Amino acid sequence: MRIAFVGAVEGSAQALQAICAAGHRPVLIVTLPQDQAGAHSDFFDLGPLAEANAIPLCRAARTDDEACLAAIRNAAPDLVLIIGWSQLVGAELRALPSLGVLGFHPSALPRMRGRGVIPWHILTEQRRGGATLFWIAEGIDDGPVAAQAVFDINPDHITARALYDRAVSEMVAMLPPLLDRLRAGDRPATPQDEAEATICARRRPQDGQIDWTRPAACIDRLIRAVGPPYPGAVTRMADGTAVRVSRARLHPRQGYFIGLPGQVQQVAGNVVTVMCGDGACIDLLDLNGRAPPRHSILGVCDGVS
Predict the structure, then answer these.
(1) Over the stretch 277-304, which tens digit does the pLDDT of each residue have?
(2) Which site in 26, 40, 217, 225 is 20 to 30 Å from 248, CA atoms measured?
């Protein structure tokens, strides 16, 4: 079975390594040009993996670029496998492989279709996560399901990194057995139940701004939802300088500090304690990718003078 593989993120690399190890080495890899790395916060350059496995490589900003379509057409794939690309797949590409185009979505489809799925799981307090391999159709994540894993999550504690890694690990476990079935002539395709469908809106950088008038639990949830592998939540110093917060925790002492939302209440070592809108506090543990230095604490948060 001839496979063309398309991807550009961490999960793409793990999937590619898994299928090569299982004897499903693609005949072509499509990935982003290196100058497009900023298109994904979890970008992973597949070039070295292609070279290590002696697989032809096509770099393209979009799969509907004529040069990319020509490369896939020339590879004559039975299957196009798209893992981590975040672009709609046009009719021309969908028509090229005889088996179809197989995609990955980090949810239990039909729930949580769309964009920003990992953060939205946490922000909307979902208690079920998933990983779905599905046949890409004309709509958004609505094609028949080829394989799916469903698992419980605790939205009060899970981070974006933990949820991302769990969804990817489930996908990597399902993928080689599914390819075995396809190579043997079995093409599983269970239609999605539209009555159960939900769709997630695209998230933009401004959606990660911390509003210190919100309750501490909501701010903690935002920081966990948009932290690694994503850029993190954002607050500002008194002088307007943006500060990214990648890791935090709820402060354990309720009612101990008295102050205004956004005020720094305590600095203990590298932990900065900030008041939130409900009178509870958040401990900031990582600012701009590092533990916050003590000398730069005053004025870290909005409202501090």
Answers:
(1) 999 999 999 887 655 544 443 344 544 4
(2) 40
Domains in the chain (CATH in brackets) are: 3-200 (3.40.50.170), 205-296 (3.10.25.10)
Tokens of 237: 């110093």
Cβ(106)–Cβ(150) below 8 Å: no
Q: How many CB atoms lie within 10 A of CB 111?
A: 21
CA distances from 166 to 47, 170, 178, 223 (A): 25, 6, 19, 19
State residue 133's pLDDT score.
98
Contact 26, 4 (CB under 8 A): yes
The region, left, alpha or beta by phi > 0 then psi within -120 to 50, assigned to residue 283 is beta
Task: Indicate whether 124 pLDDT > 80.
Answer: yes
Residue 282 has what pLDDT? 95
Give yes or no for a contact between 82 and 7, defined as CB atoms under 8 angstroms apart: yes
DSSP for residue 17: H
Place of tokens 């609505």: 142
At 236, is the pLDDT very low, low, confident or very high (cuts 50, 70, 90)?
A: confident
Between 50-64, 231-245, 290-304, the lowest mean confidence (pLDDT) is in: 290-304
Beta bridge partners of 235: 243
Q: What pLDDT, on the 0 to 100 scale, is given for residue 247? A: 93
CA–CA separation, 236 vs 275, rounded Å? 15
SS3 61: coil
- What is the per-residue burial (b if ≥16 Cβ within 10 Å, else e) of 213-247? ebebeebbbbbbbbbbbbebbbbbbeeeeebbbbb
- What is the per-residue DSSP string for 142-183? -SPEEEEEEEE--TTT--HHHHHHHHHHHHHHHHHHHHHHHH
User: Could you tell me which residues come within 8 angstroms of residue 79 by beta carbon, excluding any fewer than 6 positions away?
Assistant: 1, 2, 3, 4, 97, 99, 100, 101, 102, 179, 182
Q: What confidence category does residue 123 fall into, taking pLDDT thresholds of 50, 70 and 90?
A: very high
